[in-house]
Write a structure and sequence with these properties.
The complex is a heterodimer of chains A (404) and B (219). Helix content of chain A is 66%, strand content 6%. Chain A is an alpha/beta fold and 404 residues long. Among the domains of chain A are: 134 residues, Rossmann fold, CATH 3.40.50.2300; 109 residues. In chain A, α1 links the parallel β1 and β2. The N and C termini of chain A lie far apart (79 Å). The relative contact order of chain A is 0.06. Chain B is of the alpha+beta class and 219 residues long. Chain B has 2 domains: 63 residues; 142 residues, Histidine kinase-like ATPase, C-terminal domain (Heat Shock Protein 90, 2-Layer Sandwich), CATH 3.30.565.10. Chain B is built from 6 helices and 9 strands; from the N terminus they run ααβαββαββααββββ. In chain B, α4 packs antiparallel against α6. Classes of the chains: A alpha/beta (404), B alpha+beta (219). The interface between A and B is medium-sized, with 33 and 33 residues. Chain A: It holds the Pfam family Response_reg. Chain A: Keywords: Phosphoprotein. Chain A: This is Response regulator. Chain A: It comes from Marinomonas piezotolerans. Chain A: InterPro entries: CheY-like_superfamily (IPR011006), Sig_transdc_resp-reg_receiver (IPR001789), ST_Response_Regulator (IPR052048), TPR-like_helical_dom_sf (IPR011990), TPR_rpt (IPR019734).
């Protein structure tokens, strides 16, 4: 095997166990990487990825109490913190590999199973870099969101390197989905699937059916995927989305509750469950989901005001149904405080927070407090710090005032 | 106390032990980085080899447990057989060299197949470890396509399946009840495409004269 040349490459190593971290650092050192940064947990890795692009990311699946390596990968892929040109190699134990493989939507570029030797890691990294090199034009185009160019390049790579044909077809199918060319995408996924059960192709087909408003067909494919692989939680998400379109909100909620049970640390899924529960008036489930979401949001790429505001809204929903416990009131205040601390620069967020606080006070009969909040809001509007209520907000104010 | 399922207990016990092996192997990597006398280095290599084999065996048992208790979901993906077999030879070559055996593979450059990579890695590993005990000089991995079935075979130049009078043969691999063969069979039959399931065949190797284990995976 060729001596690897990593001398112009940078690496990020994410591993919580000291022993393994030291060993892997030594190995990467021996390969001659230009620089090697180290993170001990997912949260600090996210910070480092915000500041740098790395050529290679070597991450353990198991990262202690926080997010696991797969959640980290999903989050940084969704928020584009790592370019497609970077190589993500996931280190797994034999027992956790199913979790990683089940995450078909956001798969790492490669896996290596513990325990591994230096020679094995070197081989995996070389193979990974070789493939990345062959796909460089495709990935650059994807990073630029130039899907036509990505498709064209992928077709060229597939012709030149038949071994990469499968991977290229998947990229082409996904790029067509991004372009909203659903009929063409469907044709690609169907050809790829042939007679075998390639899960990503079935998943692609299901998404095409969904976008083409063929919800029954989408449901059938997604149900099959959830049966074939219980770790493929994204299939549950799409099944729930499909069921909502079909008007089966309650079944959709059951599906999401199941999915959340399988991956309780997934923030976006908690938010989805919270929203759906709000829609069907299940404020208890909504509050629970948004409370978890608030907890998870703190160290994530998706730390946005809306998570906290929705949590507050779910507690308002509870307050209107029955008397709140002091704990629920505390939860409301705690989320409000976080909004005040982190998101009060936004005049829209500020107004929504005031309105929710007024709604809560009115629901628990603290009418005086509600009036005081309205006065603060009014002066903030005059100072240009808060938005004046739009028509929907005016409607809500009207309702809470007439409820007295 | 509620009575627990003994196979589940054993499976998690194996899992624990396997993790211990993992951290011991890390310690060994540290040792290997020291300047060592040739005989010490050789001894360390043997220890490493043995632990790696132990690790692979326990991985096999864990898969076996999951397959037998219907707790395994086959993960289909598409692979180049040349790359797959090259990986297997790479991972197992140290064991073969330690026994002065030649381990090689043949596969058409463009042959692609759909199968569960982790599972088939464990199956090929198990079969090669077995062949290491019987081969005189040579073990060969082959892959080809036979009527909508991918065939991966492990062949050696040992005495073959029918005339084994080795004592240890009975332990793992010799008869139909052998654990290794049972594992290979469960792994093959777990692959299922539109009603066609995988299977294994115990044959005589035409090219090497010894045993040939052929694993048929529906495509």
């Amino acid at each position: 095997m060729n001596k690897p040349d990593f001398s112009d490459k940078t690496a990020l190593l994410i591993e919580d166990m000291a022993e393994a971290r030291i060993m892997q650092k030594k190995m990467l050192n021996d390969f001659g990487f230009k620089s090697i940064d180290i993170a001990m947990k997912a949260e600090s890795a996210i910070e480092m990825l915000r500041g740098h692009d790395y050529d290679v990311i070597l991450s353990d699946y198991n990262l202690g109490n926080g997010k696991d390596g797969q959640q980290l990968l999903e989050e940084v892929r969704i928020s584009h913190l790592i370019p497609n040109t970077s190589a993500y190699l996931m280190v797994t134990a034999e027992t956790s590999i199913e979790m990683v493989m089940g995450a078909i939507e956001y798969a790492p570029d490669g896996y290596i199973t513990k325990p591994f030797s230096q020679a094995m890691l070197q081989r995996r990294l070389l193979k990974l870099m070789n493939n990345k090199e062959k796909l460089i034009k495709v990935n650059q185009a994807l990073d630029e969101q130039d899907y036509d160019k990505a498709i064209e390049s992928a077709q060229a790579v597939a012709t030149k390197h038949p071994v990469l044909d499968n991977r290229c077809q998947r990229i082409i199918g996904d790029a067509l989905l991004c372009k909203k060319d659903y009929h063409e995408a469907l044709a690609v996924f169907k050809t790829c699937r042939k007679s075998t059960k390639m899960p990503w192709a079935v998943f692609g087909e299901a998404k095409c059916h969904f976008y083409l408003n063929d919800f029954d067909k989408a449901e059938k494919k997604l149900r099959q995927l959830t049966l074939d692989n219980k770790y493929f939680v994204a299939a549950y998400d799409w099944l729930a989305k499909t069921l909502i379109q079909q008007g089966h909100q309650d079944t959709a909620q059951e599906v999401l509750i199941d999915a959340v049970g399988r991956s309780p640390k997934n923030l976006l899924r908690q938010i989805e469950l919270g929203k759906l529960s709000m829609d069907i008036g299940d404020h208890i489930m909504a509050e629970m989901s948004f409370r978890r979401a608030v907890f998870l949001a703190k160290h994530s790429c998706f730390n946005e005001a809306s998570v906290y505001l929705q949590h507050m809204a779910s507690i308002v929903g509870l307050a209107r149904e029955s008397e709140l416990t002091s704990r629920q009131l505390d939860n409301f205040q705690s989320s409000l405080k976080k909004v005040e601390q982190n998101f009060f620069d936004s005049s829209t967020t500020r107004s929504e927070a005031y309105l929710l606080e007024m709604e809560l006070m009115s629901a628990i009969n603290e009418l005086k407090t509600a009036e005081q909040i309205e006065e603060v809001w009014q002066s903030d509007i005059e100072a240009g710090k808060a938005d004046a209520p739009d028509s929907a907000a005016q409607q809500r104010i009207h309702i809470l005032k007439s409820a007295k | 106390m509620e009575k627990m399922d003994i196979s589940t207990i054993l499976a998690s016990a194996i899992h624990e032990s396997k993790n211990h092996i993992g951290s011991l192997l890390y310690q060994l990597e540290t040792l290997k980085r020291q300047p060592l006398k040739p005989d010490v280095e050789k001894a360390i290599q043997k220890v490493e080899e043995g632990m790696k084999q132990l690790n692979d065996e326990w991985v096999e048992y864990l898969y076996l447990y999951r397959l037998a208790s219907d707790g395994y979901h086959v993960h289909y993906d598409c692979f180049s057989l040349e790359e797959f077999l090259d990986d297997q030879v790479f991972a197992l070559s140290q064991s073969a060299i330690a026994k002065n055996l030649d381990l090689s593979f043949n596969a058409d450059r463009n042959l692609m197949g759909v199968f569960d990579e982790r599972l088939m890695t464990a199956v090929v590993g198990t079969a090669v470890y077995n062949a290491l005990r019987f081969a005189k000089s040579k073990i060969e991995l082959n892959a080809s396509l036979d009527k909508e079935y991918l065939v991966i075979s492990i062949e050696d130049d040992g005495p073959g399946y029918n005339n084994n009078d080795h004592q240890e043969d009975e332990l793992l691999f010799g008869s139909n009840t052998g654990l290794g063969l049972y594992f290979a069979e469960l792994s093959a039959t777990a692959h299922n495409v539109e009603g066609r399931t995988g299977r294994i065949e115990k044959l005589k190797s035409n090219s090497l004269g010894g045993a040939k284990l052929a694993i048929y995976i529906p495509q």
